[in-house]
Specification:
Helices cover 12% and strands 39% of the residues. It has a domain at 165-281: Thrombin, subunit H, CATH 2.40.10. A hairpin with a 4-residue loop joins strand 16 (243-249) and strand 17 (254-267). The protein has helices at 2-23, 283-294; strands at residues 25-29, 42-44, 54-55, 64-72, 77-86, 91-95, 110-114, 119-121, 128-136, 146-151, 165-166, 178-185, 192-201, 218-223, 234-236, 243-249, 254-267, 272-278. The chain contains 2 helices and 18 strands. It is mainly β. InterPro entries: Peptidase_S1_PA, Peptidase_S1_PA_chymotrypsin, Ser/Thr_Proteases_Immune/Dev, Trypsin_dom. Belongs to the peptidase S1 family. CLIP subfamily. Keywords: Disulfide bond, Glycoprotein, Hydrolase, Membrane, Protease, Signal, Transmembrane.
């Protein structure tokens, strides 16, 4: 009897949180005009290197996209490169950092998307554009980092462009599961972005208290290889917005499942870990917004 009572409490808590997230949802409209950028006065930010990443090959993870969020600075346009995950022909998921809302010079007015490749080198080709994005306004209780992006034009699927399935709605922890973390490594120098993957395992959140107590809608992962960073554990910005994925058994075979949206890596000489936003608590939020936008 107690087990069912606890289950009911958990379901009610998730429904209350979801209702609160809908009330705090903000839609941002973006420019889809390439000419709105002063292309001769632009600067792409190079993130710190990813740790222990392995280069992906074409078609290996066809839901992965490179995004560049452009914000107008005092002297030039500043572009923040990130990763995202295609979830349908019209939508993708990423992290709030990938919109520039938490960095200088401020929120992006243009977000470009590059799909169907694993290596992007400057000068970048003609991009896709994002028409809108939705995020959840932070509150004292919680500050989800998940962002829903809408493409300006519907994607056409092929072996290098395809959606990934979302995790089932709820609050399943995936504790003890093996996973992969995907994202783009953008090393210092002439801009390039290489899609990489990292093998990880998902522990209980209590194993990751170095970053403070994680919220219920967050998760951590321990990388298969130890870190190689001298000194105390510190944060790396690489891989932001990328997929955390597992393989789940479907009707006839295993399929890739999106279980998390990458926020940051943390590492020192002995440990290398990641923090992500869980997808499963936000499935209802995503499905409601995509249905309304497609209507």
């Amino acid at each position: 009897m107690m087990r069912y009572f606890i289950l009911i409490l958990c379901v009610c808590k998730l429904q209350v949180e979801a209702f609160d997230w809908f009330n705090r949802t903000i839609r941002v409209d973006l420019s889809t005009n390439r000419e709105s950028l002063a292309r001769q006065d632009e600067f792409l930010v190079n993130s710190e290197r990813s740790l222990n990443g392995v280069n992906a090959t074409n078609g290996q993870y066809p839901w992965s996209i490179l995004t560049v969020a452009w914000s107008k600075g005092p002297e030039s346009w500043i572009g923040i490169p990130c990763a995202g995950s295609i979830i349908s022909e019209n939508f993708a998921l990423t992290d709030i950092r990938c919109t520039g809302r938490e960095s200088q010079p401020g929120p992006a007015t243009v977000i470009e998307a590059f799909v169907g490749g694993v290596l992007w080198v400057s000068p970048l080709p003609t991009p896709k554009y994002m028409r809108h994005y939705w995020y959840i306004e932070p509150s004292a209780e919680n500050s989800p980092n998940i962002v829903l992006l809408q493409f300006h034009e519907r994607l056409t699927y092929n072996p290098n462009i395809h959606a990934i399935r979302l995790a089932a709605p709820g609050n399943f922890s995936y504790e003890g599961w093996a996973s992969l973390s995907l994202g783009f490594n953008t090393p210092v120098g002439d801009f390039s972005a290489q899609l990489q993957f990292i093998s990880t395992s998902i522990p209980n959140n209590n194993a990751c208290t170095f970053a403070g107590n994680l919220a219920n809608h967050e998760m951590c992962a321990i990388e298969a290889d130890a870190g190689d960073v001298d000194g105390p554990i510190r944060r790396f910005n690489a891989f932001s917005g990328g997929a955390w994925m597992t393989f789940e058994y479907g009707d006839v075979d295993y399929h890739a499942t999106l279980v998390g949206i990458h926020q940051f890596q943390y590492a020192n000489a002995t440990s290398s870990l990641g923090i992500a936003t869980r997808v499963s608590p936000f499935v209802e939020w995503v499905e409601k917004l995509t249905a309304e936008a497609d209507a």
